[in-house]
Task: inverse folding
């Protein structure tokens, strides 16, 4: 591919990355005008400041201070950053959610992890099955959740140490380190250090990592796969191929559909390489493929042990074929359906523009400029293609809701953060070489640091407090008052019977019905409740009526 072709490809990627995610035409026009105004105003302010020696000295001192941070040993910088991020996420987990899952998906996997910890893939359905008809669980003789097992393995580890709430913050800390090395592999040390900062101040990352969502595991696996895949191509070392295969394999048993679309550009690129350099890369790709195949066989085995059929996933058994990507669109020839889906996904993408960083400018703008100005490094295009692949997968899906932000795009968060970081790291060279702006590297570092500081302050005063307030007020299916009543107003051991669907949704995480549970939660079935009294004679049995517990005998 010659320089002209590369420039054309970069322009297409840039246009797609930014313009196709802004929404309708009126939104695009308005967004372009707003961003032009912000950049012109910001550029004029910076230019005016640089005309005077005093501001330039301030910028230089800030840049010099940041430059000295490069002397900090890498392991210390990463260790401190990881501990800080872990601490923030763990604190928010307690402050916002009482260290409990608040969304149905997370609740079901939290409960499913307890089944894994018991040494089983599933439990035998309760003898009083009708009392334990739990949302997001299948009870067909076996009792299990329909989610893939990847994230539940890690939650089971947390349950083993009686600290499941540490798992997602810990995953976030490890993902921070993986993102640092991926940014360093592509853009160098300066880009990697900017990536650290952007990752830690992202409200999207921090808030979602404070709950129990399986997308945290998916993001870590996706980031590790991209890192070790690139290292495999660069070094042809077998160990990198092994780690790449393990990462993608684990991604597949955590979120199979996302893993498929995320890895698709890498698969195409691998086939292209093998076409011209077969002998050089065959061994690495063959080993990587065998490891991934082992995970696929394990997933088939898991399906066999739960649904009873290797090729029937829990999703399909619970929801039917509507979970197959594009099944409804591909079986319906109405073009309006495609149009409506595309519009819906474009509208959904605006959440990423606003919530990834919470800046007054789009979170994708700097990634757009990276390609538009031709500043991208090798591998940036491949990362952008993975972003678009996930974006396209949403068109084939029915699930685009604002839950902890645009969480169905969460696996692309590291990609967007890294592309933004690489652009910021390339600004000094761009202005020095192409625009002949005579500012020192330290002065540019100071300017970049000041701009990031101002935009982060804006996020801290706008979107972050708003999201904090939203999440703290019984977000999604959580009901703190109900849990307090169950905990404080029952004589243990107890059974609490719930009739309201919302109450049952809020207590999914309290399943399954292990005898060791202080409180077992079941469905209120009115005249049939005597069966529970007979089955649990040693437990106090309560019925929740109008927010109050009534003991029955």
Result:
């Amino acid at each position: 591919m010659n320089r002209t072709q590369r420039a054309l490809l970069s322009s297409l990627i840039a246009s797609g990355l930014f313009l196709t995610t802004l929404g309708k035409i009126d939104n695009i026009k308005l967004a372009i005008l707003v961003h032009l105004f912000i950049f012109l105003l910001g550029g004029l302010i910076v230019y005016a400041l640089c005309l005077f020696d005093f501001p330039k000295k301030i910028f230089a001192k800030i840049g010099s201070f940041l430059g000295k941070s490069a002397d900090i040993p890498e392991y210390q910088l990463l260790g401190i950053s990881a501990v800080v991020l872990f601490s923030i996420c763990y604190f928010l987990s307690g402050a916002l959610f009482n260290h409990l899952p608040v969304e149905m998906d997370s609740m079901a996997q939290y409960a499913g992890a307890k089944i894994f910890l018991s040494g089983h893939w599933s439990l035998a359905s309760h003898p009083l099955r009708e009392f334990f008809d739990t949302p997001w669980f299948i009870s067909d003789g076996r009792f299990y959740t329909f989610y893939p097992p990847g994230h539940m393995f890690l939650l089971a580890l947390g349950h083993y140490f009686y600290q499941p709430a540490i798992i997602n913050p810990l995953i976030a800390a490890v993902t921070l380190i993986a993102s640092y090395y991926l940014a360093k592999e592509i853009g160098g040390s300066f880009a990697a250090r900017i990536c650290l900062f952007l990752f830690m101040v992202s409200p999207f990352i921090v808030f979602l990592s404070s709950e129990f969502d399986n997308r945290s595991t998916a993001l870590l696996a996706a980031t590790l796969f991209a890192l070790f895949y690139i290292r495999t191509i660069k070094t042809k070392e077998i160990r990198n191929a092994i780690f790449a295969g393990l990462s993608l394999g684990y991604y597949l048993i955590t979120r199979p559909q996302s893993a498929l679309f995320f890895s698709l550009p890498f698969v195409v690129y691998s086939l292209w390489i093998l076409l011209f350099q077969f002998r050089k890369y065959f061994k690495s790709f063959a080993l990587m493929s065998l490891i991934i195949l082992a995970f696929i066989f394990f997933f088939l085995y898991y399906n066999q042990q739960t649904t009873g059929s290797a090729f029937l996933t829990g999703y399909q058994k619970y929801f039917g074929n509507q979970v197959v990507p594009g099944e409804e669109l591909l079986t319906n020839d109405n073009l309006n359906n495609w149009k409506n889906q595309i519009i819906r996904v474009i509208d959904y993408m605006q959440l990423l523009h606003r919530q990834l960083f919470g800046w007054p400018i789009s979170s994708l703008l700097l990634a757009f400029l990276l390609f538009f100005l031709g500043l991208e490094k090798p591998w940036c295009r491949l990362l952008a293609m993975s972003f678009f692949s996930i974006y396209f997968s949403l068109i084939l899906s029915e699930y685009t809701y604002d839950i902890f932000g645009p969480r169905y795009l969460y696996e692309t968060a590291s990609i967007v953060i890294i592309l933004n970081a690489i652009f910021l790291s390339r600004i000094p060279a761009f202005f020095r070489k192409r625009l002949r702006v005579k500012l020192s590297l330290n002065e540019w570092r100071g300017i970049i640091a000041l701009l990031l500081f101002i935009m982060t302050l804006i996020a801290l005063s706008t979107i972050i407090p708003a999201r904090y307030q939203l999440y703290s007020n019984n977000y999604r299916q959580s009901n703190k008052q109900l849990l307090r009543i169950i905990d404080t107003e029952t004589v243990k051991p107890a059974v609490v019977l719930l009739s309201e669907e919302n109450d049952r949704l809020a207590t999914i995480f309290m399943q399954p019905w292990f005898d060791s549970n202080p409180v077992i939660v079941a469905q209120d079935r009115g005249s049939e409740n005597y069966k529970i009294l007979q089955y649990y004679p040693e437990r106090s049995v309560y019925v929740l009526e109008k927010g109050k517990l009534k003991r029955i005998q």
About this structure: The radius of gyration is 26 Å.
